[in-house]
Amino acid sequence: MTGDTITISPGSRFRAAMVLAIIADALQIAVFPLFVEGALSPADDILDFGVAALLVHLLGWHWEFLPSFFAKLVPGVDLVPFWTMAVANVYRKSKRIAVAAEERREEHPALGDGQHS
Question: What distances in angstroms separate CA 39 from CA 1, 45, 97, 100, one per listed residue?
Fold first, then answer.
């Protein structure tokens, strides 16, 4: 077996994270009787810990995940799709950072190409 690693493009990671967040939020909303207890529901806690771990694995650590995680522990508040909103916010911020980096590269082409004279 070789030590080759499989790399996933950022776009695929965001799509996978968004699908995961939507499924987790839909489970918490659609299976309401099972998850109605909020912080007292072990199934809800396991789902939230798992989703948080997978999102951090897919997208890296982002502060947006922390309020989403804590809000899901409050009974009734777990009916708000916080995971989906957190992933959408991370995606929006990453696009804004990418655009700013591209604009800087266009302003200073000598710095962006890696060649120094």
Answer: 44, 7, 35, 40
Report the alpha-carbon angle 16-35-70, nearest 5: 65
Residue type, 30: A
In contact, 83 and 44? CB cutoff 8 Å: no
Taking each continuous run of H as one helix and of E as one strand, the counts in the chain are: 6, 0
Please name the amino acid found at residue 88: A
Query: Encoding tokens for residue 12?
Result: 């695929």
pLDDT tens per residue, range 59-94: 888 888 888 888 877 777 777 889 999 999 988 888
Q: Could you tell me if 6 and 75 are in contact, meaning their C-beta atoms sit under 8 angstroms apart?
A: no
Cα separation, 98 vs 101, whole angstroms: 5
